Amino acid sequence: MEDDEHQVTRINIDDGLVDIKYIASQQLDFLRIYIREEPDLYMGSWETSSAQWAVANLTCQEAQLDKSRYACVSINSECLVVNSTMNGFYGYRCKCSSGFQGNPYVQNSCQDIDECKTRRGICKGVCHNTVGSYSCNKCPDKTDYDTTTMQCNSIKRQNIFLGIIIGLSSGLGVLILILSAVFITHRWKRYIQRKLRRKYFRKNQGLLLEQLISSDESASDRTKIFTVKELQKATNNFHQTRIVGHGGHGMVYKGILSDQRVVAIKKSKVIEEGEINQFINEVAILSQINHRNIVKLFGCCLETEVPLLVYDFIPNGSLFGILHSDSSSSCLSWDDCIRIAAEAAGALSYLHSAASISVFHRDVKSSNILLDGNYIAKVADFGASRLVSIDQTHIVTNVQGTFGYLDPEYYYTGQLNEKSDVYSFGVVLIELLLRKEPVLTSETGSKQNLSNYFLWGFKARPLIEIVAAQVLDEATEEEISSVASLAEMCLRLRGEDRPTMKQVEMALRVLQTERLKRCHVDQGNGQETEPFLTPGVMGDCFDQLAAPDYSTTAKLRSENVRKCYSFEQEFMSNSGATC
């Protein structure tokens, strides 16, 4: 229907509603129709409205009397009353009976609704459709209604399905619980580890070391405070396969840092809390030392109970490892031995007098003299070292060192001085001469210090009877006598009777120069060339000696060394016990 003011847009047969659009945008109150016990049938706005409609202004009884005009012609349809409580209007309309759907104003249009299909789950069992309705029956024997699938399933199948669901749910729940527990435990452990690392960092005076390093630009460029995570990654969590040395003061691991530097990480034994400050000072001092014959310190880690030291990795092991290897003869030539001894003596001399503050090594031994890729000597292991102000001649401390190298005067008095390192270095010189370990087994089976054995033989027997055969083959009698005399002076009981490390270094440099001079004479068919130095007499001219050029004397190292000793052998192989 349409006129100038209204337009019917939809007629709803089931609900008896007509949608009207107001073309003139006027709302007409007379279209408001109400039905008793029902909400207002009129719903409208300024543009559209929905109103109840009736077939005719007749009651259902009046309409059914005139069959020719009665509108509810479809079977299974029924008549509905349409009344208005406001203005007394009444009428009727038609609808399909309950359980049917269609158009009640067309014959045979109201058709049965199959509730079993349209309303899934309407029955808690088997659903049977009937005309206008439906019926529900129980599930057959050995079946049960499944609320999940909304149908009857066999009990066995249902149990299996239910078991699968319960199993998966339980498994998933247990897995979630386990993962949650693992996650919480992991987070808790990480929290405890972080807390413990912070505790160790504070205990090990990490803030003090940071201040000391930051205050010195040269030290801050060379020294780093590593985190324990960095060192764990570098050593595969300190795996035992990374162990390259055992010492009296700890264990040494080989590691590879994130920047691909190969380092040696020293894990010291437990130290007393009172020694932490001294350790920090030692690290601060060693970070400033830049000597070609001292192992370079890269930094340390303070997040463990005992601080970790990170050094440059020295690939060719220790002097001890080469001198006392299982091979029939040492791979070091006499030239190499003199050069290595001179380089080590120079490093100790630097620590004693040339550094900004004196450092007493306190554990000089052949296993702490390492050889780099070019077999240059590197003095290492400052775990027992002590710092001494320049105006001090000695310090009183607990006796610490390695049997066979320990200074007797220091052992009995507890007074550590630079001559204690001199004594220990004298034992190294004896090792080079005799090629025996610092503690040896005598013919009677008893243990004996190499120094006592040497001093007794030096006075009572010819040197040729106690010096190693290889040394006799390569060295002259004068050189053997000079080194033996130098070792004897280093091993004197009274420290004041021993030479200084500077004097020892100069004496060894003289031997180098003499051998270099002799080599030039031989190569020149007997025509002597000018020596690099004017040597003095060993016995009384220590103070007049000068060291030759390092780069020239380094040329004397033997080719046999490179062939006999692997680049991947142990970094350190200490054999002595500590006291």
From TrEMBL:
Record bears the keyword Signal: yes
Membrane-spanning intervals of the chain: 160-185
Signal peptide extent: none
GO BP term, example: cell surface receptor signaling pathway
GO molecular function: ATP binding; calcium ion binding; protein serine/threonine kinase activity
GO cellular component assignments: plasma membrane
Classification via Gene3D superfamilies: Laminin, Phosphorylase Kinase, domain 1, Transferase(Phosphotransferase) domain 1
Superkingdom of origin: Eukaryota
Domain Protein kinase: 238-533
Keywords: ATP-binding, Disulfide bond, EGF-like domain, Kinase, Membrane, Nucleotide-binding, Serine/threonine-protein kinase, Signal, Transferase, Transmembrane, Transmembrane helix
Binding site for ATP: K267
Membrane topology type: Single-pass type I membrane protein
The keyword Nucleotide-binding belongs to this UniProt entry's keyword annotation: yes
Stored Pfam families: EGF_CA (PF07645), Pkinase (PF00069)
PANTHER family: PROTEIN KINASE DOMAIN-CONTAINING PROTEIN, WALL-ASSOCIATED RECEPTOR KINASE-LIKE 21
Protein name, UniProt field: Protein kinase domain-containing protein
Species of origin: Lolium multiflorum (Italian ryegrass)
